[in-house]
Every structure is written in structure tokens, then in C-alpha cells.
Amino acid sequence: MMLARRALLAAPLLLATPARAQPRPAIVLVHGAWMGAAVWDRTAAALRTEGFEVLTPELPAHGADPMPAAEASLERYVQAVLAAIGDRRDVVLVGHSFGGIVAAAVAEAAPERLRRLVFLAAYLPASGDSAYSLSQRDPGSLVGRFWRQEDPARTSPASIAREGIVETFCADCIAADAAWLVANHRAEPVPPLATPVTLTAARFGAVPKAYLVTTEDRTLTPGFQRAMLQAAGITQVAELPTSHTPMLAAPSALAAAIASLAQP
């Protein structure tokens, strides 16, 4: 009788044994303006140690990409990300800063390939918005103060004044990371920043979304980030107590936050 009782008690435990965990999704990390794919290196490495496949596409005319700034366009950025995604499905697409505009356009182009969009301290557009139009709603940003552009017609590449790069993007970085950020600052093609995106409820709107707010941000102020995510109806929200560039200031914490948001 004792053996039979033990068998009956064990039966529910056997029935409750969970099924094998689903494979982890691929994570695609899209950098923002004035930066390149290398900014993700430590965050990508941390995610890979957790079993994720991680892709960090270089946007044309950014980082080490040889394209001249005059040839860059939002469409070329979108195509670069789509090429990185390839035939993968169930992808978690993370857009940082201006990369949020690119990620939104990718979602409109190929929603069937995405599990979730994650906006990291990112511009979160409605249809018809551009990074430039959205930036006009954030007067507390330091970008306008340090914006430098030679061409009065505002078509030449723009830079952030050298003395303002760290204050704007990563005031909480250690000295070595701050020096790296300054050394790798590359002038930004301007026309893509002013290119509006066309988004539909059936495509972009169908992709689940999350937002990571950086609470010490001087590039996209926290209040502006929250206003965008609230206007978009996003309820899956996490916060990081960092500057605009947590991939340098807190790469492990950022990786943990992305990994959490990547789960079904």
C-alpha cells in the first residue's frame, strides 16, 4: 500500500514535467546615428553567452562601412537590416535611438519575420514621422546644442561637437569608453534623419512592441521617451538607470533586459 501511495503522489509530478524549452530567438541589434555596429560588442557577447544568436548589422555609411554619406538613405538602411535577418523568423529586433526609425520601417516591410520590436532609448514613430520631426518635440535634448553642420542648406553630414559627444551620449561612461566613443564618432547622413516612415496597422501595428527607457538620457530625454511609448500604447516597459548609451555604460544590464524582453 505504501508503494502504491507513493506512485500516486509521484504521478502528478511526472505529468507536470515541462516540455523542452523552445529555441531562443535570434536578436538583431540596430545601432543609431553617429555610431556603428561595434558599439554593441559587449552587449552582443553577453547575449551570446546566454544562448542567443545575435546579429549587429552595420548601417550603410556608418561605422566601418565604406559607403559615402551622400549615398545613404533610409531605404538602404532598411535593406541592410533585412539582409542581416535573411530567412530567419521569430526575430527580436532592437532599435537604439535613430535605429528605432529603421526598426519600425523593417517591421512594416517584413512583419512576418519578427517576434517583437524593442525600442531602446529610441525614436518611436507613427506613420508620417521622421527622426527629425520627432526630435522637435524634445527641447531638453542636448543634440541641438552640439549639432554641427557645414552646409547651410543642411544636406551635408552632421556631427556632434567633439566637446559635447560624451555629455550628450554617455555622461556615465568610464574614461576609456568615453574616449572610444569620441574616437569612433562618424558624421551622420542628414537626409535619412528627415525621411518620414509610412506605417500601417496591419503590418507594423501587428508586431508586439516593448520599450526600454534610459532614465539619465540627455539625447532623448526620459519624459520624451515615455510620451512616445504612451502615445503608441506600449505597455511592456522596462527602465535602465543609464545615459543614452547603455551598451557602453552598462552592457551586462542591457543584455539582461533585452533577454527578458525577448521571451514569449
TrEMBL record:
UniProt keyword annotation of Plastid present: no
Annotated keywords: Hydrolase, Signal
Residue ranges annotated for the AB hydrolase-1 domain, each copy included: 27-257
Pfam families: Abhydrolase_6
Secretion signal span: 1-21
One term of GO molecular function: hydrolase activity
Domain of life: Bacteria
Designated name of the protein: Alpha/beta hydrolase
